[in-house]
Structures are given as C-alpha cells and as structure tokens.
C-alpha cells in the first residue's frame, strides 16, 4: 500500500445464492480524495460498500486498510430510528457520559458544529421522524461524521436531498478531504461525480469497467458508455400514424405539484406511446400520478380524457384511464380469486356500467376472449395465485383491457417477467396504440423505453428538460439526458 492509501481492495468476489454480485472487483481509496463509485442498478455497488465496511464477508479477494482506519458508512437505506430524538440518533453506540449518566450537554456541544457544517438547523430534542426526509438523510451523515472516520462511505446519499443540501454536502466533503479523509461516494448523479470527485470507478455486472480514473480524463457520455457496456442498441422505431385532428387525451399545461413538479407541460395523443424517464425523485413518476388522479396538483391545467383533472384513481378510470402499476401484488391483483373475477373487477365495479353486473356467463365469455388475445396460460376459472408471475402480469393487463381504455398508464410493466412475456407485453402496447389509445409509460429498464416509445420525456429535478426521439432514442442517449441539465447541456 502507498503511504496515502486508506484502503485497498483486490479481486473481490461475492455471490448471493446463484447471483454473482461481484466478480473480481478492485478499488484503491486514498486519503484526501473523493472517489466516486457509479454503475447501473444491480452493478454491485452496495455489495462492494458492505464488504469494504466489514458488514459483509467476501467469497474471495482481499481488503487491506491502513492502521486505525475508522470507516463510517451512510447506507442506502436509512438506518436511523424515527421515534428517537435527533440527539439520540447521533450517538447510537458511545454517547458521552458524565457520572455514568448521558451527558446531553456534551452531546449537543459535539453535535452542534457538525450539524452547523451540514447546514442542518434542528433542535437536537426533535423526534427524528418529524423532520423532512432530506434532513433525516443529513442527520445520518452527521452521525457518520461524529465517528471521526478516516474513510467515509456515502451510498447514494443525495437521492432525497434538494439542490441546496447537495451544495452543502459538496462543501462538507471538501472540508473532509482537506483534512486527509478518504470519501467513497456512490451515486447515480453523474453531475455530482463531475463536481465532487477526484476519481471515479465504474462497476458493471460486478466487474470494474473503469478503475479509479481521474475526473478530468472522462466526461458524462464516456461514464454512461462504461456503465452500459457494449450492448447493441435498438434501431430507431418508425413513427406511428397519429390522430392529429382529435384533441389529445392527456394534456398537462404548466403543472406544479408542491416540491415535486415544476412547470410541466406535455400532451399524449391518441395512438401515441410516450415514455417518461428520470433518476430517482426526478418527477417522472409524479407525472404518471397526476394522470391517474393519485396526487394533489398545486398549479397549472390538467385534462385527462376530456374530463379535466382526475381527483382520484376512480375518477381517472371514469375518464378512460387504465393503470398498470409496478407493484402488482399489492395494487394490481386479487391473487386468491379466479382469473375471470380479476379481469372483470374494474370494468363493472369501478365503472358501474349499467348499474347492474352482467351475467356471470357473459363475464367469463369476455374473459376468455381477452386471455386468448393475451395468450395467457390459464383459463377464466383458474386461481390467479396458481399462475406464474408473467401470466399474473397478463391478468393485470387483461383486467385493464376489459375497460377498453382511452389512456393506458404503465409503471414498469415488465419488471420481473421473462423475455418472452416482455416481448408480448410490448406487442400488446403497440396494439393498444394502434387501436387509438394514448399510452404513457415509465420503466426502470431504459431498453424497454427505446423499444416501445415514439418519444420519451426526460425529467430532471421536477422539470421536463428534454424530449428524446428518433435517432437519439437509445439507452445511451436517455441515460445521458437523465443527468442534470448543466451536464447534459455542456457535452
Ligand atoms: N441480499 C441479497 N440477496 C440476494 N441477492 C442480492 C442481495 N443483495 C444484492 N443482491 C443482488 O446482487 C446484485 C448486486 O446488488 P447491489 O445491491 O450490490 O447493486 P447496486 O449496484 O448497489 O444497485 P443499486 O444501484 O440498485 O443500489 C444484484 O443482482 C442484486 O439483485
Ligand atoms: Mg445499491
């Protein structure tokens, strides 16, 4: 180890059951530097962090740390206690004692400068759960700093932080590195990498794709390429024919949602498939929530299906919206009921069509038509719980197709389904659009957006910053656009 190395890890290997999370990853962390660690979801970043901090054992490889190298970790999942006070959260293990009692004065004296440094203006007696999420995240960082670490690891600390808090964090990191501390900074925000970090390591599928390169030697598109690897890109899709004469089924005009969306304007026309994309908290999912009547709107104009702003999901359904959620176990299905009960649940319960329910034989007949169209493996009388995950997802689709929707909102519709079902879902989405539906889709899988969408609206910090279409509608193009505007604009 060189004299300024705080920690050196070599050839780390780790599997969870059959899943290889790390496949020979190495990293070298030096005092006085912010080292950024980036990679797609599931690349192995948190696994690496857990091994470096000693909370998880590796299957192979070595970790060597400098003498007395105290490591503090701010983990991706908040690990604080919401019903304890800020003060109690700050000193979980070794609180200062006086005559064997908790020395609250000493706690506050120690905490005050750290809280001030982070710009966290809170009374230490406040119950943590009462603070906004961003302040809770800063409290967690404060707790880590109070341990006076030689190495500070931050695993995606900024996803809930507003821009001003990110600025403060940048200043704090600078102070820490001036003191010779090493910082490992895990993030999906590449503009933060460019701002804070001296070095960057890119993980891809448990392997190091870029090893500790100097920030000055890379730019955002290169980082994105390293993260995605040499995956073949889809050819750009053909434009669909749109019903330009009719008013668009979805219109958002200068819409504000407190703290989440600012001045968002877009339309989705009949026959069109429009994607929304963004990093966590960027606002793209809030836009879906507006269309589905699942959020309060504080300004602007919304029209869904010609009926104005939907006030509830039921309202949205009446306006012709079908909503396929990502968490289908919780929101999408009654798993202990039959296929026919599920597929017909919304169409006559939520819509109350005609007041009285059609005969059961009629509902079963309609279900059979739908399951055939979707190539579902299972009949109308099968229990949903007995179907495979992919076939359950088809039942969710069937249930919404039964309402003959004018507007289809999809949130990660193919998460957890196999490639065959995924391709069929995409075929169905295409059919829905061809049949005149307006489709709005979010997906954590960027390839999915490039495959099914005519255009994709990119959200950054609550605003639509770009519309990506045509030749530029590639995974790489989207991933670069999802980074913040100051970076996207400068490349
Ligand atoms: N406890 C676990 N049990 C089984 N598999 C796991 C576990 N933790 C992680 N994995 C798997 O290991 C791989 C790497 O996960 P890891 O959490 O390290 O990724 P990451 O880069 O931190 O992703 P993200 O950006 O989503 O946080 C993934 O395929 C994940 O599903
Ligand atoms: Mg992680």
TrEMBL record:
<dbReference type="GO" id="GO:0005524">
    <property type="term" value="F:ATP binding"/>
</dbReference>
<dbReference type="Pfam" id="PF00005">
    <property type="entry name" value="ABC_tran"/>
</dbReference>
<keyword id="KW-0813">Transport</keyword>
<keyword id="KW-0067">ATP-binding</keyword>
<dbReference type="InterPro" id="IPR027417">
    <property type="entry name" value="P-loop_NTPase"/>
</dbReference>
<dbReference type="InterPro" id="IPR017871">
    <property type="entry name" value="ABC_transporter-like_CS"/>
</dbReference>
<keyword id="KW-0547">Nucleotide-binding</keyword>
<keyword id="KW-0677">Repeat</keyword>
<protein>
    <submittedName>
        <fullName>Sugar ABC transporter ATP-binding protein</fullName>
    </submittedName>
</protein>
<dbReference type="InterPro" id="IPR003439">
    <property type="entry name" value="ABC_transporter-like_ATP-bd"/>
</dbReference>
<dbReference type="InterPro" id="IPR003593">
    <property type="entry name" value="AAA+_ATPase"/>
</dbReference>
<dbReference type="InterPro" id="IPR050107">
    <property type="entry name" value="ABC_carbohydrate_import_ATPase"/>
</dbReference>
<feature type="domain" description="ABC transporter">
    <location>
        <begin position="7"/>
        <end position="230"/>
    </location>
</feature>
<feature type="domain" description="ABC transporter">
    <location>
        <begin position="245"/>
        <end position="486"/>
    </location>
</feature>
């Amino acid at each position: 180890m060189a004299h300024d190395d705080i920690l050196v890890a070599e050839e780390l290997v780790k599997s969870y059951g059959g899943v290889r999370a790390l496949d020979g990853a190495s990293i070298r962390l030096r005092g006085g530097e912010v080292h950024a660690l980036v990679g797609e979801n599931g690349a192995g970043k948190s696994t690496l962090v857990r091994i470096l901090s000693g909370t998880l054992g590796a299957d192979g490889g070595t970790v060597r740390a400098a003498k007395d190298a105290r490591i503090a970790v701010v983990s991706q999942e908040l690990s604080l206690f919401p019903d304890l006070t800020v003060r109690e959260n700050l000193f979980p293990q070794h609180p200062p004692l006086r005559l064997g009692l908790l020395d609250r004065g000493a706690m506050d004296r120690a905490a005050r400068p750290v809280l001030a440094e982070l710009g966290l203006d809170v009374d230490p007696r406040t119950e943590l759960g009462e603070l906004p999420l961003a302040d809770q995240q800063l409290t967690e960082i404060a707790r880590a700093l109070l341990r006076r670490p030689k190495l500070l690891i931050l695993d995606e600390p900024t996803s809930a932080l507003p821009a001003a808090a990110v600025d403060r964090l940048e200043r704090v990191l600078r102070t820490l590195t001036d003191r010779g501390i090493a910082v490992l900074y895990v993030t999906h925000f590449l503009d933060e990498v460019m701002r804070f970090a001296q070095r960057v390591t890119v993980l891809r599928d448990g392997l190091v794709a870029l090893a500790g390169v100097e920030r000055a030697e890379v730019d955002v598109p290169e980082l994105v390429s390293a993260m995605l690897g040499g995956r073949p890109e889809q050819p750009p899709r053909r434009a669909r024919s749109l019903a330009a004469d009719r008013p668009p089924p979805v219109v958002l005009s200068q819409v504000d949602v407190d703290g989440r969306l600012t001045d968002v304007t877009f339309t989705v026309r009949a026959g069109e498939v429009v994607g929304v994309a963004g990093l966590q908290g960027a606002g793209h999912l809030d836009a879906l929530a507006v269309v589905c009547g699942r959020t309060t709107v504080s300004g602007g104009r919304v029209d869904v299906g010609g009926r104005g702003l939907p006030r509830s999901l039921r309202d949205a359904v009446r306006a012709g919206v079908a909503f396929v959620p990502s968490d289908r176990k919780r929101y999408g299905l009654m798993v202990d009921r039959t296929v026919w009960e599920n597929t017909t649940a919304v169409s006559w319960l939520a819509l109350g069509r005609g007041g009285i329910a059609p005969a059961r034989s009629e509902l079963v007949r309609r279900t059979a038509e739908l399951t055939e169209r979707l190539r579902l493996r299972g009949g109308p009388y099968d229990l949903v719980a007995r179907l495979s995950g992919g076939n359950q997802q088809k039942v969710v689709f069937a249930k919404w197709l039964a309402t003959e929707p004018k507007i289809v909102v999809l949130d990660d519709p193919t998460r957890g389904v196999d490639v065959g079902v995924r391709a069929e879902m995409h075929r169905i989405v295409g059919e829905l659009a061809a049949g005149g539906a307006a489709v709005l889709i979010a997906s954590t899988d960027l390839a999915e957006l490039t495959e099914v969408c005519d255009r994709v609206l990119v959200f950054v910090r609550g605003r639509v910053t770009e519309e990506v279409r045509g030749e530029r509608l590639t995974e790489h193009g989207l991933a670069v656009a999802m980074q913040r505007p100051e970076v996207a604009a400068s490349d």
